[in-house]
Design brief:
Distance between the termini: 73 Å
Number of strands: 27
Largest sheet: 6 strands, mixed
Strand content: 15-25%
Length: 893
């Protein structure tokens, strides 16, 4: 459990009293060796803790006493008293004020080790000590600090570097806040304490370059605190540059590479912040593509709360934990399916028990001419015993089913809470990005001669850390665009009656399972007419196409590849990279981009993103005989497609939704699946309306099955390039393809794709196998007859089970297809009756039914069926099944 710095500080002060008391007792020991060992044991922890907390003077003196010759107890006792007073001074120093005189303590430590005299002045109410006055710092000025050899235990290095990253991030936010609020004692005190801690911990860790920068920055804040200089732009600039340098040093230290950040010019600027801006950036031997303010934040532990301890966890461990939660979700889904089957078994047993009970209690059966033997059998003691056994079995099944159902309900709640808790470990506030862009806007507006204020709204909105990291570049591009292309110069704004200072607003909010991020400005806006002309000039579209575009479609032109509104390419907002790259990046994150703009009033870009990429909800549908999953976040609606609902539009079709016309495409055709008739869904179907980017489109499917929560799995390297596939998920016992809607939308624009595929030519069988089809629905019976006939079968139909049995006795058939729910004789009774006939004992029998429960399928197989297909099965599936069974029968013969 890692403690916060404040808690560590309090712990250090509370432990120091006991350690100092132990050191004083050590002086009373007679043997010098024992005295030295006891002093070292008592004071070494003080030296380590004080160094970690930034009190390097106290650390140096404690270390010096522990290492000094122990044969002069009186001299060491005096040093101990001074050390005690110094620690006491630390405990009473207020947030803004008195500091222990680190220089004197360092000098005293050196004198003690050298055997010289020393005197102490513990509290320093004057200006802070500069680096030149510090003996330790001055000694390091000429040392080779390009290589870092950590002065920490190996298991502490990562924690130290993470602490440096967190403090530099927090300091950047506070400095920008300081620039807005002016001198604020509490804020200045917080900045001072963080820099002091960075200085001390870096000294203890041996990271000399970072220590030198932090020390000079602390001195500069000390001057601000003492009222010797204002919180003006030069001061904020140089302190932000110092944070950039410290961040770069930390990154190189983490990577174990040469620390080539040249801090000498920066140290001069820290001594005099009003120096020319030419020295504003730290220099490296290798140039950077981005400024330090825009570099991605290194992976660290989840954000720390301001109070309470936290446990640092590697993100990979959280990721693995979430994967295990996903497996639990899948296992719970399977258990739920098994419980549903158990419930059906309970009902089946109840029905069977009721039949027996009714037969025993029905004397009227005698008057109706029932078989006397059967009635005697029903009243026999054996049947009475069976009835009692069934009653007991039913009672036990009901009790256990209730327990299973209740347990699954509790498990569902617990799994949901576990999933949400683990998800929260992955969640970080978007303020981590937003505050970084404050710095971007500040520097860019200054470079362009503009005045731009940044408004941040909803910075505490949390989303998946993976999303935050992948959002950084797209958001940076949008923010730069807003400052460069959106906000006008002060004079232009004033002439238009606007405030000289423009505004860029970054906001985030949660809506259901999505995060909405908006980047807006109050600048010049986008003119649809100019966009049309620009697109024509750049040959993005033709003049005829431009004339047909409405204003919304014209605004969408900026997302076309190769389109840019910039007069010339620069390194300010994209270096020629267009908004198409931004949209692609967002859509790869399963998000959408929407654009709104008013000429003269400004532009807003809205990003809608999922909360997480790990667990998602999907809508399952049957398409071309296959099951597919559509990401639910993109689904607008799903509805049954009534005959005649589609209207012609150009060369395609559309569906009217209110005042909107939504283009509709056959999903089976887009995916390259056969357009098979769905048996049980003749002349019917469904359409799912989805949003992709700024557009809506309808996807025609055979049947919408329902929504599921799934864990999306990668298809692996061999299938990574599979079209229209975003991944796969396990639903029940089946692997289901999760659709990539962006790829599907792009394929609908291809003429050969949007029309679907033609029916594959059927091979007319030479043997003309004869098939008996039993189906009570006229539509479905005719559909099956037509499809089987086109496939080369000779088909005879029956309207119910009794009719089918009669025809089967009169004629000879090679195979039988039967529904289950039919009048006079159902499918189970028909199959049992056929199997009792010598001619049909080994004849292939396929049951095609809407009864999809597992117990129904088991009943079908027990009755003697060879295959059990669930409606709406497609014709190809029935044909393949009959072919396989007939081939197997021929092979057996």
């Amino acid at each position: 459990m890692a403690l916060s710095s404040a808690e560590l500080y309090e712990l250090f002060l509370s432990l120091s009293a006991a350690r100092l008391a132990a050191a004083k007792q050590a002086l009373e020991l007679k043997q010098v060796a024992e005295r030295r060992a006891a002093l070292s044991a008592a004071l070494a922890p003080i030296a380590v803790d004080a160094g970690l907390l930034g009190a390097e003077g106290v650390s140096a003196l404690a270390s010096a006493i522990a290492r000094a010759e122990a044969d002069e107890p009186a001299r060491i006792g005096g040093a101990l008293s001074e050390l005690e007073r110094a620690i006491h001074a630390l405990s009473v120093a207020d947030a803004s004020g008195a500091r222990v005189n680190e220089t004197e303590l360092l000098r005293a430590a050196g004198a003690l080790l050298e055997g010289g005299a020393h005197g102490f002045t513990l509290l320093d109410d004057e200006a802070p000590v500069s680096v030149a006055q510090s003996t330790a710092a001055s000694a390091s000025d000429n040392a080779d600090d390009s290589r870092w050899t950590p002065g920490l235990a190996e298991d502490m290095v990562g924690a130290f570097l993470d602490e440096c990253v967190e403090r530099t991030e927090g300091l950047a936010e506070r400095l920008l806040e300081l620039e807005q609020r002016g001198t604020d004692k509490q804020l200045v005190g917080a900045i001072f304490r963080d820099l002091h801690t960075l200085k001390g911990s870096s000294a203890f860790a041996g990271l000399t370059k970072l220590n030198r920068v932090a020390h000079r920055a602390e001195d500069l804040i000390g001057e601000l605190r003492d009222g010797k200089r204002p919180a003006d732009r030069p001061l904020i600039d140089v302190l932000l540059a110092a944070l950039d340098a410290m961040r770069a040093i930390t990154e190189q230290a983490r990577a174990g590479s040469v620390i080539d950040v040249d801090v000498a010019p920066l140290l001069e600027r820290l001594a005099n912040p009003n120096r020319a801006a030419a020295l504003a950036e730290p220099h490296r031997s290798t140039p950077n593509q981005k400024s330090q303010a825009e570099q991605a934040t290194p992976a660290a532990a989840p954000p720390r709360p301001s109070d309470g301890g936290t446990l640092r966890i590697e993100f990979d461990k959280v990721d693995r934990l979430l994967n295990l939660v996903g497996e639990i979700v899948l296992a719970r889904s399977k258990l739920s399916g098994a419980a549903e089957v158990q419930g059906m078994v309970v009902r089946e047993v109840a029905q069977l028990r009721k039949k027996l009970s009714d037969s025993r209690a029905a004397p009227a059966a005698l008057a109706s001419g029932s078989d006397v033997v059967s009635l005697r059998s029903a009243f026999s003691p054996e049947n009475s015993a069976i009835l009692e056994d069934l009653e007991r079995t039913e009672r036990v099944l009901r009790e256990t089913f209730g327990e299973v159902d209740s347990g699954l309900g509790g498990l569902a709640i617990a799994v949901g809470q576990l999933r949400d808790t683990v998800m929260k470990l992955r969640m970080v506030p978007i303020a981590r990005l937003f505050t970084k862009y404050q710095r971007t806007v500040r520097e860019l507006s200054h470079k362009l001669g503009k005045e731009v204020n940044v408004e941040l709204v909803g910075g505490d909105t949390e989303l998946d850390k993976v999303l935050v990291e992948r959002l950084e570049d797209p958001l940076l591009h949008l923010v730069r665009n807003a400052v460069d292309h959106g906000v006008e110069t002060p004079d232009v704004r004033a002439a238009a009656g606007k405030p000289r200072e423009g505004t860029v607003r970054l906001s985030a909010s949660q809506r259901g399972g999505q995060i909405l991020v908006e980047i807006s400005d109050d600048g010049r806006g986008l003119d649809p007419e100019k966009l049309r002309q620009k697109a024509v000039d750049k040959a993005v579209i033709s003049e005829a196409e431009a004339a047909e575009l409405d204003d919304a479609a014209a605004l969408d032109l900026i997302f076309r590849a190769g389109f840019s509104t910039a007069e010339k390419l620069s390194d300010v907002s994209g270096r020629g990279v267009g908004m198409d790259v931004v949209r692609d990046a967002i859509q790869k994150l399963k998000g959408n981009v929407a654009l709104r703009s008013v000429v003269g009033a400004g532009t807003t870009v809205e990003l809608s993103l999922p909360l997480t990429l790990a667990i998602t909800q999907v809508l399952t549908a049957r398409v071309g005989g296959e099951l597919c999953a559509i990401p639910l976040d993109a689904v607008v609606s799903a509805q049954t497609l009534a005959p005649g609902a589609l209207e012609p539009l150009g060369t395609g079709q559309c569906l009217r939704l209110g005042e909107r016309l939504v283009p509709v495409f056959d999903l089976a055709g887009v995916l390259g699946l056969a357009e098979n008739v769905a048996l049980g869904e003749v002349d019917a179907g469904s359409v799912v309306i989805v949003t992709v980017g700024n557009f809506e489109l309808g996807l025609c499917v055979q049947q919408v099955l329902g929504r599921h929560e799934v864990v999306i799995k990668s298809l692996g390297s061999m299938l990574a390039a599979a079209p229209c596939a975003a991944g796969a998920a396990v639903i029940g016992e089946r692997m289901v393809l999760v659709l990539d809607l962006l790829d599907i939308a792009q394929r609908t624009q291809e003429p050969t794709r949007s029309r679907g595929v033609e029916h594959r030519a059927r091979v007319v069988r030479a043997d003309r196998a004869r098939v008996l089809v039993a189906e009570d629905s006229d539509l479905i019976r005719e559909a099956i007859r037509r499809e089987l006939s086109q496939a080369g079968f000779e088909v005879v139909t029956a309207v119910d089970g009794e009719d089918a049995l009669r025809i089967a006795k009169e004629q000879r058939f090679d195979a039988v297809s039967s529904d289950v729910m039919m009048p006079r004789k159902d499918g189970y009774e028909l199959v049992r009756a056929l199997r009792a006939e010598a001619n049909y004992r080994d004849t292939p029998i396929v049951m095609v039914t809407s009864k999809d429960a597992r117990i129904d399928a088991v009943r079908g197989y027990d009755a003697g069926a060879d295959a059990y297909l669930t409606k709406p099965a497609d014709s190809e599936e029935l044909i393949r099944t009959l072919d396989a069974l007939l081939q197997k029968r021929r092979g057996a013969r």
